[in-house]
Design goal:
homodimer; 497 residues; mainly alpha; 3-stranded mixed sheet; 3 strands; globular
Chain lengths: 497, 497
């Protein structure tokens, strides 16, 4: 037993080291590696990835994991959780025949380009054969797993442990019934406002200067992280000791950069506040997509788009851009950054309509993996759902079914976690409110006291607790989407009705 | 035989992949990794380095290399050279007992900090015990190698294959006899000039703008490389497909940035112009320290500090800094960047006195490894040589024997290659002059034609030829330091006498 545990520890730390070094290379690829360097890079990474892959499938490792799994009862709580995770991940890998796995990877990399072209040319037909193949592989892989559950539940579980269609239906049924009509009410109540300052010219270096100010407001630890720019903002980390993130700077949309920065700082704060004791275990890093997104959207929307936040920090912003904000009031900003619109894609959606976009794709994914819809019918079904939920019809498939990258990369079951994050955030918010005075803290020079609360309740655990466990322990109840609806209604009623 | 060659190829490409990924991490460490991330990094790199190390010492690899080495005669020329290199590197590793090697590495990492403190406190005594230990280890390791040669020759060979004390003595004896008195002549002839523009204020972002201009002048391929800043400028590469370099920007010393950039662009051009066919062999990369340094110093000094270069590019520089150069002529610049001074350290030395600094350390290293000097006597010996060669006496050991990092890192035999680079550059220069009109090309918008000559004669070979072979083939004679003396005398006579 002890020998097995020692072997398991050795295997884990080696996996960690390979992941570490592949991650560092990934950061370089995403943020600065020159265009012409990627052919050689993929050759070299192929070799290292192969070495890394062996660590997860070698007969020795399989023996260690299986024998410890068989004796789960005798393990301490931490090791038991690790072994459960290791076993789950390993089984999925070893149960898929290597040949099919390789073919599937090839298919994905080809489909990426086919999707890009299809989107550019509004040509769903050129994409649907590959889409169909990707779905077929996923259904086949699910069969190999041999898990007794609905296929879509198995996919959902990959991105959010233990969350099932039952949970998501609870969320989306509520939104359908209550949020869809509420959005109509809000939009009907909107009045035109002067928002020209939103698209004034904001030089990139000054945008970065303000992003740096935001890092201080969020009390980001700069000795253990940094900011850079990239086309698509993201957060990157290898351990709490090294957490980096990017933002983008569009020179005529300063708030795009500001909210990207705050959003990524939410992810980054989570990762920085995890206890280092998890570093060499399988319980390091944030616990799930949904909880991660709850942190980023809590800071971005609940804090970052609040009246108190801008009361406090508008002077900072105005100091950086005195001319652009010469005739702008705090209220102008608060209304502008909370404007509600019927838009065509989630990535540009406001806080209120955001989840309705997610709902569209969720409904379709559920139908696909319940064999209730054909590939040919997807574009039409997409458009109908857009009309039903958002009251807007895509004028073509580029704007509709082809808008997002996820399916071309084989990501089914991931999308719903985007909505889950906001819903988790609201539920956590109402508990936090009972403990600390969020409005008062938001008026302080930085958000340290909010960080501290989140660290104690959520962050420091890393992934040693599941999302469901954390939610239950923090809020004293199971996932309850009513909080999300309540939060949205309270906020937007106050703003608009 | 064929099986062995196949196994050798597989081993080499795996070594390449590990080096690749360690190099990418190194670039990150040197240019942006946050301060607080290094403890975790060293833990993770320790594991990967151990995996990499095994590739060089495993019994299977030893068998492959030894058996192919035994049949060298039957190998093609390329593989024979690779096996020779592999055998040499492997033997050095496997002959040192692992325990001693680990102890030595620990000693080095401790000594780094001890040297820093000793330098800061002008306290040679606190450094000498560790210095003495490092030297003892090096002498012991040389014994383990069991090579029949003078110990210092073995160290020299590590940094510059086949170059011996005989070669270096030939160079330094000439400099001692001819350059030392010539420097005195030049310094006596110097007249005071107005050089205030040298220390005007030059904003960093504009310095980087001009560095970018220099990349175009040198025809650097930006799709396969990039520039960043770091405290100590350096060039980094994993293959010709990815060659990066750094420069520094001191705001009151614009020419320090300019010549750092040109110097590193010399190294970078060499690496970019190597044929990709060497990528997966042991013959990739520049062939030796001396040849590498010859390329950087050729561009920096022979081209970059020439009258023609500034005739052509001063308008570019003035466009970036119109106020700072308002009353400055091309001649002012040429004289200022070729000013000769008795200075205390190589890194700040001008082109003419540079090699005399190198000579000081060479003489001492030779004595150390010939057992002709005690550790206690080194500071005094250093000072005496400084007076003899440069006519200047360090006022303490911080300025003298403690000035440089190399010995604390166990680097003996490396220093002389700094002088060799300049001497190689001059010898190559006189051959190039016969083939192409260097002055005319320097007047063109970029230096592509010079790059092309160097690519054909030197660069594309990678390290498939040794420095000595390249010199012989390009210049039609063996290493001949007379060219270096001739170049310096011609240039500085024209400028000063």
């Amino acid at each position: 037993m002890e020998t097995m545990i020692r072997k398991f520890r050795e295997a884990v730390i080696k996996q960690k080291a390979f992941n570490y070094i592949l991650n560092v290379t990934g950061w370089d690829s995403e943020t600065e590696a020159p265009h012409g360097s990627f052919a050689r890079r993929s050759e070299m990474l192929g070799i290292i990835s192969q070495e890394a892959f062996r660590l997860y499938v070698s007969p020795e490792y399989q023996e260690v994991v299986n024998s410890l799994f068989a004796k789960s009862d005798e393990l301490d709580d931490i090791t038991r959780r690790e072994i459960k995770k290791a076993k789950k991940a390993m089984d999925k890998i070893v149960k898929i025949p290597e040949k099919e796995y390789v073919e599937y990877q090839k298919l994905l990399s080809l489909t990426q380009i086919i999707w890009e072209d299809a989107k550019a040319n509004n040509d769903y037909d050129s994409f649907k054969t590959n889409l169909s193949e990707i779905i077929r592989y996923n259904k086949q892989f699910i069969k190999y797993y041999g898990i007794d559950n609905h296929p879509y539940n198995i996919l959902l579980d990959e991105f959010e442990e233990d969350m099932t269609m039952k949970d998501y239906d609870q969320l989306f049924d509520l939104l359908k019934a209550e949020l869809v009509p509420f959005v109509k009410q809000v939009i009907a109540a909107e009045k035109p406002r002067d928002e020209n300052f939103m698209n004034a010219f904001y030089p990139k270096d000054l945008q970065m200067l303000f992003s740096n100010r935001l890092m201080d407001i969020m009390a980001f630890d700069k000795s253990h992280g940094l900011i850079k720019t990239s086309v698509h903002p993201f957060t990157w980390n290898t351990s709490p000791a090294d957490v980096r993130f990017t933002t983008h700077c569009w020179e005529n949309q300063v708030f795009s950069s500001i909210f990207s920065t705050i959003h990524e700082l939410g992810h980054a704060t989570y990762e920085q506040q995890i206890d280092e004791k998890w570093d060499n275990t399988l319980l390091s890093g944030g616990t799930s997509c949904g909880i991660h997104e709850s942190q980023s959207r809590f800071y971005e929307n609940i804090i970052g788009r609040s009246q108190e936040f801008w009361n406090t920090h508008f002077p900072d912003l105005k100091a950086v851009f005195p001319e652009q904000f010469a005739n702008v009031t705090v209220d102008d900003i608060v209304m502008a950054v909370n404007k509600v619109q019927r838009s065509m894609i989630r990535t540009e959606a406001d806080e209120l309509t955001y989840s309705l976009h997610v709902m569209v794709r969720y409904e379709l994914e559920k139908k696909i993996f319940s064999d209730e819809i054909s590939i040919d019918d997807l574009p039409q079904a997409w458009n109908e759902l857009m009309i039903e939920y958002l009251g807007i019809e895509p004028k073509n498939n580029t704007e509709g079914i082809l808008q997002d990258v996820h399916w071309s990369g084989g990501m089914f079951g991931y999308f719903p976690t985007y909505a889950l994050g906001s819903a988790f955030a609201a539920q956590i918010y109402y508990t936090m409110k009972k403990d600390i005075d969020i409005e008062a803290i938001t008026k302080e020079p930085n958000l340290k006291k909010i960080n501290a609360w989140l660290k104690e309740k959520i962050h420091h655990y890393g992934s040693s607790k599941t999302a469901k466990e954390i939610l239950k322990e923090v809020t004293n109840e199971d996932f309850n989407p009513e909080y999300y609806l309540r939060y949205l209604k309270e906020k937007y009623t106050a703003l608009y009705l």
